[in-house]
Specification:
Blueprint lengths: L10 E2 L6 E3 L5 E4 L8 H10 L1 H17 L5 H15 L2
Antiparallel strand pairs: 1-2, 2-3
Amino acid sequence: MKINHTPGPWELDTDGEGHIIDIHGVIIAEVYPVAYSLEGDHNAALLAAAPELLKACQLAMQSDIDGSFVSASKWWDLMKSAIEKATP
């Protein structure tokens, strides 16, 4: 499957500016802070986890569609890891 977005993994930069960066440290997105709350940080974490969440969903669906029965533990572990990354 061809991807049309910046390949993951993406990470929340430690610069405190809400930057989402790719594996080369290039800023691919910026999340603006939400006044007086951690909502901006949580939004940034969710965005940073997007490639892993997408991959887990694709593996699960592919397993169901073509009957390949990709090891449930493979996509389950990826999904669990992505959810943990998305929910600080």
